[in-house]
Amino acid sequence: MNVLVIGNGGREHAVITALAKSPKVDKIYAMKGNAGIAELAELVNVDYCDVKAVGDWVDAKGDIHFTVVTPDDPLALGLVDELEARGHRAFGPCQRAAIIESSKAFSKALMKKYNIPTATYETFSSYEEASAFVETCPIPVVLKADGLALGKGVLICKTREEARLGVKEMMLNQKFGSAGNTIVIEEFLEGPEVSCLAFTDGKTIVPMITSCDHKRAKDNDEGLNTGGMGTFSPATFFGENSAKEVMEKIMVPTMSAMNAENRTFKGVLYFGLMKTNEGYKVIEYNARFGDPETQVILPMLKTDLLEIMEAIVDERLADVQIEWEDGACVCLVLASGGYPEAYEKGKEITIGTLDEGIQLYHAGTAKKEGKLVTSGGRVLGVVAKGATLNEAREKAYANAKKIHFDGMYYRKDIGIKYQEITKE
Ligand code: AMP
Ligand code: GLY
Fold first, then answer.
1. 184 lines ligand 1 (CB under 6 A)
2. In Å, how far are 8, 76, 150, 287 from 270, measured between CA atoms?
3. 160: CA distance to ligand 1 center in Å?
4. In the listed set 94, 113, 145, which residue is the last one of a domain according to the structure?
5. Which of 319, 348, 363 is the last residue of a domain?
6. Do residues 352 and 379 both lie within one domain?
7. Which ligand is the nearest neighbour of the Cα of 152?
8. Looking at ligand 1, which atom is closest to the CA of residue 104?
């Protein structure tokens, strides 16, 4: 089979690496890909947010048998619907289902209607009403732009003044563009966070191994929010009781709720959860694989990823036995100096000889005059597996030292947090 993968980050490099192992796959195309992906796939330079242009390319190509849509924007724009309407097979939720990520107002209302545990909240489309609300609500409080904002549309306000300014920035100054025309104002929750991703075809939901992201730019979760500076898997505190609670109170009810709303979700459903004193609560849903969670999940997957994806499209996921390796996996993101604010591109990357078993996923890389150079804020993901989390972490850090580009920085504490929390 010839497979087209939409996207160009570390997550897509991990997806393509897994797909390339499938005996069923003949050739992979990546739209648009990056320098690392180019080793495994032919790059296609089409703007994947232009769903019609993607459909035209697939039609004209004539021999694409399966398309995997990974990023949030094309899912929200209906790329899967467009391809299916043209008679092609595509993996990912349809537009009506992808709304679970693309509108926080939708996902919050869904959780309220179906009693899925989440922070209490109010939705506002009027600046005056939102401003009045933050004058009296409990502080800290969390402001969320309704729409997609590159994972950055959330403000945690520790003081009332911050909340006032936040509402103004989002609703009047359009800090997150039109994504902030409607905002959700929600209760501030506390507790460890875990990313629980699951495969679902709308009938069956199968959790993947858990992972933990590190969203802040600096050690000890300080600095600005980023797309993710590193991950580890599994979440050390997440035991059998946690798995049972999340399955019964969150995963199955979410799948059923989407069916009841005539928005059957087929694809990867990502549950961003917080373990609070009152049990697990949903912080966010994503309609896709997480980045950089995928970089520590897929290396542990023993089952053929294409087989799973095809089963989801055909609604026979229950027939597939999904297996995972034991042990742990760590991903360190090597970022450009300045990220997530302004940073320079085009810095030459040098990579020494990495230890066996280390996987280097490319995110913001490109080839320029034969040289590997930086082309984004998050540049590379160094991924190591180990029998224990400590072993995986030590291997990842030892190998990160062999990579260099001007301004390169990475967090030194990936895989350390939450170790003191008892497993349940
Ligand atoms: P998101 O962009 O939705 O992933 O949110 C970014 C981060 O903000 C999350 O990973 C949490 O750490 C934090 N956050 C979001 N909602 C809440 C909340 N209700 N209470 C506390 N922290 C939150
Ligand atoms: N790592 C968080 C996300 O993919 O949205």
1. no
2. 19, 15, 16, 6
3. 18
4. 94
5. 319
6. yes
7. 1
8. 3
Task: Please indicate, yes or no, if residue 414 is contained in any of the structural domains.
Answer: no
Global pTM? Answer: 0.95
Q: Which of 106, 284, 417 to mutate to test the pocket of ligand 1 (most atoms within 8 A of CB)?
A: 284
Ligand 2: nearest atom to the Cα of 293: 1
Task: Assess whether 136 and 82 both reside in one domain.
Answer: no
132 falls within a domain = yes
- 8 and 63, same domain (yes or no): yes
Work out which ligand 2 atom sits closest to the CA atom of 151.
Answer: 5
Residue 244 sits in a domain whose CATH number is 3.30.470.20
What is the chain's length?
424
Q: Are 349 and 376 in contact (CB under 8 A)?
A: no
Tell me how crowded residue 267 is: count the other CB atoms within 10 A of its CB: 28
In a domain, 358, yes or no: yes
**Which residue's alpha carbon is nearest to atom 2 within ligand 1?**
151
Structural domain that includes position 86: 2-94
Answer yes or no: do 74 and 23 share one domain. Answer: yes
Cα–Cα dist 334/228, whole Å: 11
- The answer to whether residues 248 and 201 belong to one domain is yes
**Does the residue 119 lie in any domain?**
no
Residues 208 and 313 in one domain: yes
292 with 352, same domain: the answer is no
Of 101, 86, 26, 89, give the one whose Cα is nearest residue 53.
Answer: 86
Domain count across the chain: 4
pLDDT in 10s for each residue of the chain, 424 residues: 999 999 999 999 999 999 999 999 999 999 999 999 999 999 999 999 999 999 999 999 999 999 999 999 999 999 999 999 999 999 999 999 999 999 999 999 999 999 999 999 999 999 999 999 999 999 999 999 888 776 668 899 999 999 999 999 999 988 877 777 899 999 999 999 999 999 999 999 999 999 999 999 999 999 988 989 999 999 999 999 999 999 999 999 999 999 999 999 999 999 999 999 999 999 999 999 999 999 999 999 999 999 999 999 999 999 999 999 999 999 999 999 999 999 999 999 999 999 999 999 999 999 999 999 999 999 999 999 999 999 999 999 999 999 999 999 999 999 999 988 888 8
Taking Cα atoms as reference points, which of 421, 356, 409 lies closest to residue 380? 409
The verdict on 227 and 141 lying in the same domain is no
